Amino acid sequence: MQNIKSKIDWQSWLQRWDAQQTGYIPHREARFQAMLDAIELQMPAEFVALDLACGPGAISQRLLKRFPKARCVAVDIDPVLLAIGQGALGDANGRLRWVEADLMADNWMEAIAQTQVDAVLTTTALHWLPPHRLLQVYKQLAQLIRLGGVFLNGDIMPFPFHLGTFRQISKTLSARQEKQAFQERGVEDWNSWWQALAQEPELKELLQERDRRFGERYTDYEPILDLHEAGLRDAGFREVGVIWQIFDDRVLLAVR
Question: Which residues form the Methyltransferase domain (predicted)?
């Protein structure tokens, strides 16, 4: 990542990433705001956070801006998104550290070289994990987060299957919002963003490495809310509940 220099406009790619993500998640900034509000009310001025499955560092960027004495470790398996984040955000004057690690591997916590953190935050990411792996990650996080620390997950967490009307309303609304964003307002979508990024010749090797790592890995499991809550309680978090919600877009807070 460090060797890719500077013909690439990293800031522009990060901004385009945020824009296309907002096409899928129209209340994305409100979700971030809710998560950071919870952090402000629970954390001291100086704390260490883990940006889990960080992508290009959307959480890290906002967290370090709001909390000038905080430090953050940003971890992901995607070499391209990590390169964009590192290129755009750097190390934030020593307050931000980037780590490549795979949440599907049992030893991913070894890579972050952090025995304890005060908070773990993640958004729009853990639905890619199969349920058995998600539950294992929650158990690992319970070991990593100090007593009194917090875990915050902002994501689509569907209603349980017996609430069929709730599920249908949420899916219909989401489809309508995506149509408005991508067809009516012309927002760049996921596929178009990646196709455009592939035109950067300096990223060719990283894109190939990304394809090698992911292969057929893209399966959207979308565990229901009940599984997240039960898994966190079983892992040892003493308080678990939703603190922000618009239909099935939620922020789940767990207190260690």
Answer: 50-149
